[in-house]
Write a structure and sequence with these properties.
Blueprint (H helix, E strand, L loop, with lengths): L2 H10 L7 E6 L14 H4 L3 H9 L1 E6 L9 H8 L11 H8 L9 E10 L5 E3 L7 H11 L3 E2 L2 E9 L2 E7 L30 H18 L7 E8 L7 H5 L3 E4 L3 H9 L3 E2 L6 H10 L6 E6 L1 H7 L3 H19 L5 E5 L16 E7 L12 H5 L4 E4 L3 H8 L9
Parallel strand pairs: 1-11, 1-12, 2-14, 9-10, 9-11
Antiparallel strand pairs: 2-13, 3-4, 3-7, 3-8, 5-6, 6-7, 12-13
Helix pairs in contact: 5-9, 10-12, 11-12
């Protein structure tokens, strides 16, 4: 939605007892397996999702616009109702806020990957085999605390191969390029200024990368690092004011907790997996009227090119779904923040299936939840930014517009 659309929601929103659950299976959308002609979602055995699709209504959503491949932050912002072309945030600031780092005005944060490089410096694994959280923390300890050009550097672990670097000093500017080439078989890129005022930040970053290369040279498999998403902390209008909701987020990965915090959600303890997330949902159900529940495994499997594992994650979610349904939400929406087809091993531009279940929805003829079925669903194909107005309407949280 545009700024005017958010203002419309602010004017129409009203408190009610209705409860909304937005269940996001990260990277849900897929492409057909060459041997079967079915996507991961269509391949999975999902009797509970299919029942919800039959009772509810379905469709396809474009996260940004047709043909545009979205990042995770843009995808989630759109699903929360924020136009991702107007409200932008870099991955670094998201990760920093997600791990409760005290990101101050003037700080620049970058997201890091520990990676594996060969003897020629070529990246062979952008994720260093997904090292353990403990190994990530140990390596961050080797790099933390540098001072370069009167700028203090903080290096903090996030999860597995992911970490953050926060630059704190005078005259910093986040308008610099990434060092992460986003593909194996090539050298990391030199960081360059994208605006005249960012030359200092680029210089400090390149010196940090050079020092890190020396310090990590004897490590394995994480013997190098990649940086991207240089950014400062933004200031967004919050969901509590826009939608008159009391929202909460249940997400294991820090980046998604960070994004939820930036739009005004309370962050609940998610535990370590889906079972813990559902326990948290039930324990806090009476205290909130909007829940964002995040499942990461679909995206991780898709990026690894593991079709069967992505199918397995979807089936695990489906088996757990009755426990979620038993909480009795007035509106349940199931969708993804983007497509991550295993055959592409990355995010893609393809529209994402969406399912809306509510006693007030108008059921269509869809009897299963999958990309092909959702193509003919009653919701049609529409912008992801319209998810929140639909959720609010079906929870009877919007007043009439106009006379």
């Amino acid at each position: 939605m545009t700024m005017d659309s958010l203002e419309l929601m602010r004017n129409l929103a009203q408190p009610s007892t209705g409860k909304i659950i937005l269940l996001i299976l990260d990277g849900l959308g897929g492409l057909p397996h060459p041997d079967t002609g079915k996507t991961e979602l269509e391949t999975a055995d999902t009797p509970n999702l299919n029942r919800l699709a039959k009772e509810g209504t379905t469709g396809l959503i474009d996260i940004v616009s047709p043909g545009i491949t979205p990042g995770s932050a843009a995808g989630h912002l759109a699903l929360f109702g924020y136009d991702p072309l107007r409200f932008t945030i870099g991955r670094g600031a998201l990760e920093a806020v997600g791990i409760d780092f005290d990101l101050k005005p003037g700080d620049v944060a970058a997201r890091g990957n520990f990676c594996t490089a060969d003897k020629n410096g070529l990246v062979t694994d952008r994720r260093a085999g997904r090292i353990t959280n403990e190994e990530c923390a140990r390596l961050c300890g080797l790099l933390d605390g540098m001072t370069i050009e009167n700028t203090r550097l903080f290096v903090r672990p996030v999860r597995e191969h992911r970490f953050i670097v926060v630059f704190r000093g005078d005259g910093l500017n986040p308008a610099v390029s990434d060092s992460d080439p986003q593909q194996p078989g090539v050298l990391p890129r030199a960081v360059s200024a994208l605006k005249p005022g960012a030359a200092k930040t680029a210089s400090i970053t390149n010196k940090f990368i050079a020092q890190a290369k020396r310090l990590l040279a004897g490590q394995h498999p994480a013997n190098m690092l990649l940086l991207r998403g240089f950014s400062e902390r933004p200031c967004f209008p919050v969901m509590t004011e826009i939608y008159q909701l009391k929202p909460a987020a249940i997400a294991v990965y820090p980046m998604y907790r960070g994004l939820a915090r930036l739009v005004g959600m309370d962050i609940l303890d998610p535990g370590t997996g889906l079972e813990d997330e559902l326990k948290t949902l039930k324990a806090n159900y009476s205290a909130y009227d909007f829940f964002f529940l995040h499942v990461k495994g679909t995206d991780s499997a898709g990026e690894d090119g593991d079709f069967e594992r992505k199918v397995s994650v979807i089936e695990e979610l489906d088996r757990a779904l009755p426990e979620l349904i038993d909480t009795g939400p007035d509106v349940l929406i199931v969708t993804g923040d983007h497509s991550t087809p295993a055959v592409l091993k990355g995010h893609s531009w393809h529209p994402v299936p969406v399912l809306l279940h509510s006693r007030w929805c108008r059921p269509d003829r869809t009897t299963e939840f999958g990309e092909s079925a959702c193509t003919s669903g009653g919701l049609g194909r529409f912008s992801a930014t319209q998810i929140m107005p639909l959720a609010m309407a079906h929870a009877l949280k919007l007043t009439k517009f106009g006379a």
